[in-house]
Amino acid sequence: MSHFYPVIHPTAIIHPKAKLDSTVCVGPYAVIDEGVELGADCVVGPHVYLTGLTTAGTHNVFHAGCVIGDEPQDLKYQGEPTRVRIGDHNVIREHATVHRSSKPDEETIIGSHNFLMANCHIGHNCRLGDHTIIANGVLLAGYAEVQDQAFLSGNSLVHQFCRVGTLALMQGGSAISQDLPPFTVALRGNEICGLNVIGLRRAGFTAEQRLELKRLYHALFRSGKNLRAAVEEAQKSFTSPTAKTLLDFVAEAKRGVCADVGRAAGDNEDE
Fold it and tell me: Where are the domain boundaries for CATH 1.20.1180.10 in the chain?
């Protein structure tokens, strides 16, 4: 973000106990409350509101109007001082919201190198890994987890306590109330339609690794077998670290796993 304002704009309101590195830039009419800590080279745009016990590392950019660390939208919340923890090199765009945790011994966590686009919402106690993309209008309910390099397209929805696996892709407008396995593509509601091949290629997965994942995908989601039985059988045949990532995720699912819809809905597994 380019900034034409001085390091601290005179109209910004910053609590004297807030802890800002000397290199932090704060724009017009921003409000930074007492419990906020910002590391080196963070940029706080105009009309940003940072509150709660919110800590952010270095080189984070908060664009105009975003609200970080406000109270959780949880009826059980009783006004306790609760937390948001943000890593380094994140970009949070206009009017995005990140709510703090519901309980003092918990945190809402945003890792590093994430891109949170305009008007997205990260609910209380969510956990984002690294290098995720959360597009415009995405809604993450409380306690949702988004693992490294996942891509959530515009206006997609994630139910509370659901997990989105590493390098998974949610198509625009899709919604899940079950876990989305790593490396897969979600569409519509609780459905998957193959592997995120483009994402795998961009992440440097070899043709051999992609082929193994394709075979494993078919074994788990298109064999016609009960998923638990399919996992147990696949664990004997697929032993690479990449395969283990997918198998472990499915085996640990507590809310169920999104189901494959078959080739009629579009197979996304071209090599």
Answer: 200-265
Q: Which residue, 113, 161, 119, 166, is CA-closest to 138?
A: 119
CATH superfamily of domain region 200-265: Udp N-acetylglucosamine O-acyltransferase, C-terminal domain (1.20.1180.10)
SS3 (DSSP) at 58: coil
| CB environment 56-78: b (16+ within 10 A), e (fewer) | bbbbbbbbbbbbbbbebebeebe
So what's the architecture of 13-143 in CATH?
3 Solenoid (2.160)
Phi-psi region of 158 (alpha: psi -120 to 50; beta: other; left: phi over 0): beta
**Looking at the whole model, is its pTM more than 0.85?**
yes
The predicted-structure confidence for 62-98, as pLDDT tens digits, reads as follows: 999 999 999 999 999 999 999 999 999 999 999 999 9
CA quadruple 120, 135, 100, 256: dihedral sign: positive
Give the integer Cα–Cα distance in Å for 229 and 233.
Answer: 6
Q: Rounded to an integer, what distance in angstroms lies between the CA atom of residue 217 and that of residue 255?
A: 19
CA distance 246 to 195: 11
Distance CA 70, CA 43 (A): 19
Q: Which residues contact 224 (CB under 8 A, 6 or more apart)?
A: none
Helix crossing, 207-221 with 227-237: angle to 10°?
Answer: 150
* CA distance linking residue 26 with residue 38, whole number of Å: 11
